[in-house]
């Protein structure tokens, strides 16, 4: 079986043979990884991305680009509900950003959030919660308490608490996320509506149907999307 480095070399050779004048030999495979991810072809994207990462002599890619490709591949796996693969990719990505930039960089924090989401998908809720809490602590300590990434993590942890029937904690986190989004983007932003919809789900599951319906209507009015 071919190793990923050899596969990368074969792919690079094909691009060189094509003689494209509009892209460098490196630009084309990088664009191809993103194109494959967008098309949901996670296996092919992962093989090419790993090949580019492992054969530095051939690809000459900086580590930052390798990290960005890892993020694209991990997101592709996650959106395809391939949570084990997403977890493996997020683990690699987190280690790369942690080694390159330390804990204070938003890319490290973002990778930690992605790793927590993969754990959530695997129903490893205790591990996911620990990772979300760690990401929140890092974000608050380095990016401030009103950064958009903090709102994202709060919302993700709120969703986890909703899944595990921890409704008061979930509502509190959704409210905190909404407050941050409203300060940054205004009250009619779609992200605010998503959190409002999350609170409506909490109310619905607790039998508070009239309150839930009211919030669903508000969310729909704000972003033009039917949550009912």
Structure in words:
- It is a single chain.
- By secondary structure, the chain is mostly helical.
- The protein has 3 domains: 1-10 and 23-80, no CATH class; 83-144, no CATH class; 145-228, Alpha Horseshoe (Serine Threonine Protein Phosphatase 5, Tetratricopeptide repeat), CATH 1.25.40.
- Helix content is 79%, strand content 0%.
- It has 12 helices and no strands.
- The chain has helices at 4-18, 27-38, 42-54, 56-59, 63-79, 83-101, 106-121, 125-142, 148-163, 167-185, 190-205, 209-223.
- The longest helix has 19 residues, at 83-101.
- It is globular and about 60 Å long.
- The model is unreliable at 1-26 (pLDDT under 50).
How are the elements arranged and paired?
Layout: H1 4-18, H2 27-38, H3 42-54, H4 56-59, H5 63-79, H6 83-101, H7 106-121, H8 125-142, H9 148-163, H10 167-185, H11 190-205, H12 209-223
